[in-house]
Specification:
6-stranded parallel β-sheet, Rossmann fold, 2 domains, alpha/beta, binds D-glutamic acid
């Protein structure tokens, strides 16, 4: 049975578009709705109570748009929507932490795993807890990288200064002989080339976007979610709608670059 309701995504800003892009590439027929809580960005510097309140409002907003599932395209918000916390909603809610922990363990041989994240994600210990629940012997090293989110929002992913800052954050993790690094913030895949310059090619990078695609694929296959099958008289590709709590032209430009879609957007302003 076809379900043309959209898949909903939210992040504090534009980083979650890396997740939306991967989902669109894999399931182009799906309608997608994105909400960036740009008026309150960043989440990563805020307390768990505040992040919980914001995340709740984002999920409720997407549910009011009649989505069939919500993807928490933000690690900082995922830390407050783990396990039972995500089960109170009437639609499936996908967080990025638990699948990230599983993927990191699957790709690590030495079980020495690094996590690069926002302060909120690192302070929550969500990744070490999830990893050690699966493998108590695994060792997890974390580093908070608070300057990276504003650099991505600013479009500075190729700037030499950004590469220096990446080095400052990633080098201490490399000195712990990790073999796997979790990109524990959905903004970081935008900086993947710069991060790989520091890690070299021998380190596996775990990216939330790939994990979400895998989990959606699993749930489409099991029937937990139904795909949109486009009716004959409608375009085959689904539509992408972008909402933000503070929309601007600069954001539209960044979104088109991140999505690699010149016609994407513009962001429509919305209140939560
Ligand atoms: N993209 C978000 C994350 O994955 C957070 C950025 C922020 O608001 O600090 O954690």
């Amino acid at each position: 049975m076809s379900d043309s309701r959209a898949l909903g995504f939210f992040d504090s800003g534009l980083g979650g578009l890396t997740v939306l892009r991967a989902v669109h590439a894999k399931f182009p027929e799906e309608n997608l709705v994105y909400l960036g809580d740009t008026a309150r960005l960043p989440y990563g510097t805020k307390s768990p109570e505040t992040i919980r309140r914001y995340a709740d409002q984002c999920v409720e907003n997407l549910i009011s748009r009649n989505v069939k599932a919500v993807v928490v395209a933000c690690n900082s918000a995922s830390t407050v929507l783990l396990g039972d916390a995500s089960k109170k909603y009437p639609v499936p809610v996908y967080n990025v932490i638990e699948p990230g922990a599983e993927a990191a363990l699957a790709s690590s041989t030495s079980k020495r795993i690094g996590v690069l994240g926002t302060r909120a994600t690192v302070n929550s210990n969500a990744y070490p807890n999830a990893i050690q629940a699966l493998d108590p012997k695994a060792i997890v090293y974390q580093n908070a990288a608070p300057l990276l989110v504003p650099l991505v929002e600013e479009g500075w992913e190729l700037d030499p200064l950004t590469n220096l800052i990446i080095y400052r954050y990633v080098a201490p993790l490399m000195s712990q002989s990790i073999d796997t690094l979790i990109l524990g913030c959905t903004h970081y895949p935008v900086l993947r080339a710069g991060i790989e310059r520091v890690t070299g090619s021998g380190i596996s990078l775990v990216d939330s976007a790939e994990l979400i695609v895998r989990n959606l694929e699993r749930d489409f296959a099991s029937g937990k979610l139904s795909k949109r099958v486009s009716p004959k008289n409608e375009p085959e590709n689904g539509k992408i709608e972008l909402f933000a709590t503070d929309a601007s032209h600069a954001m539209d430009v960044t979104a088109r670059r991140l999505l690699q879609q010149p016609s994407a957007g513009p962001f429509m302003a919305c209140d939560l």
